[in-house]
Design a protein that fits this description.
The protein is mostly helical. It has four helices and two strands, in the order αααββα. α1 crosses α3 and α3 packs antiparallel against α4.
């Protein structure tokens, strides 16, 4: 799939990667080049999204370094466990792949009967 600005923007939404206000793509997990590579290697945007969700799942532990809680004075920040985040990413990858399958096959089902006689 050939990357464009519009497709890259849509892909960022599909993988829940927002560029922060006043920031750049470098302030997210995936640079524009990462997204372009995923798009070029995929037949559809949903396949690209599924692949990137799987990459996010692989990053789950290293991003937090296993830290589930940080305290500084009276303030405490709790993080979702890397395992839960990883599972969420894998679930999202599955949803994107399912979406791609439905789009390629079509909605609904057909039942055929063949009677030999």
């Amino acid at each position: 799939m050939t990357p464009t600005v519009e497709i890259r923007t849509k892909l960022r939404k599909l993988i829940d990667e927002r560029i922060p206000s006043g920031g750049t793509a470098l302030d997210t997990r995936f640079s524009d080049e990462d997204l372009d590579e995923a798009l070029e290697e995929s037949l559809t945007i949903n396949v690209a999204a599924a692949n990137l969700w799987e990459q996010k799942a692989m990053m789950a532990f290293s991003e937090q370094g296993g830290i589930s809680e940080i305290s500084a004075g009276s303030e405490t920040t709790k993080f979702i466990s890397p395992e839960k985040f990883k599972q969420h990413c894998l679930d999202m990858a599955g949803l994107c792949r399912d979406k791609d399958i439905v789009a390629s096959v079509g909605v609904g089902s057909r039942v055929f009967e063949y009677n030999m006689g």
